[in-house]
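Re: Re: ligand-bound prediction request (bumping)

Still looking for help on this. To restate: I need the protein modeled with manganese (II) ion bound, output as structure tokens. Inputs repeated here so nobody has to scroll up.
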Amino acid sequence: MLIVLQKKNDQTLITHIQELLQRKYDADSHIIGQNKRVIAVPGDTMNIDVELLRSLEGVLSVDRVHRPYKLASRQQKDRTTIRLHDACTIGNREQCVVIAGPCSVESEGQLDETAAYVHEQGVNILRGGAFKPRTGPYAFNGLGEKGLQMLRKTADKYGMSVDTEAMSVEQMDLVEEYADIIQIGARNMQNYDLLRRAGKAAKPVLLKRGLSSTLEEWLLAAEYILHEGNPNVILCERGIRTFEQEVRFTLCLGSIPALRELTHLPIIVDPSHSAGKARWVDDCAKAAIAVGADGVIIETHPRPEEALSDGPQSLTEEQFADCQKQMRVIATAMGKKLV
Ligand code: PEP
Ligand code: MN
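Reply:
Sorry for the wait, this slipped through. Here it is.
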């Protein structure tokens, strides 16, 4: 960490900062340069409060040499690969993984119908919410454990894996029992107790980007999970809130190449929640694959107009088949197999 002072030779401030660093953080520091304006703090400075140092009068700037996350950093390794199913591994450069299914599990019939056609179209991972984060309390909020049971039964019937959301620490045991991938939703990206619990789970975690989170905040959220001992975190870009009103969320595709530099974790894209309209999903999905995403997660429903959540953005069977066809072309161009 480098602390730059406004004035040269400000011995009183230098002593104050060095003593503070020593007392509060047990951190050694050194003055560098002839003007005595720069204090260097070597080693691990993760626990030092940068804002506190910046707030001191006479301090011009404080910069970390390293990012505030360690385990999620690309400096650890080049790539994490996670085997999600016999047929698909995420993050391996050779495959582009599709996770598909309804927003919510509504009934056995609805789920079976959806699983049948997505499986026939080559999808190995079934998504579906049993616990649903809804903006208002009166909307359908999921079938709970019954929904989890339906997911497991249906996925097993077709030889698929299950991705489903856990909204709270209390739901985690149950979700962990039924799911192959535990989803943490955008609204819970900074629920630190939930992240810590997910870090103790034996299943991979799909961590969605918070509605207005920076890449650094997102990677720090991933760091919580990694820090508790779960190395299998998948990042999911699902769009962020901006001034734009026409699309549901602004899909931040630039985050994919940026994340590649910052982290070794696999990255997937959710074109459904960002587009908000079914007819825009295929184009966004293709763009995601073209920009190097390791996979996509897509909502589809046999009768979107009857869906209990996110109908407008859910693809019909026909639209989904067409989307798969288009995505396969782009995946092939990227040297990957769509699985
Ligand atoms: C979902 O996947 O159905 C969902 C609620 O997503 P998000 O957390 O990204 O809004
Ligand atoms: Mn949804």
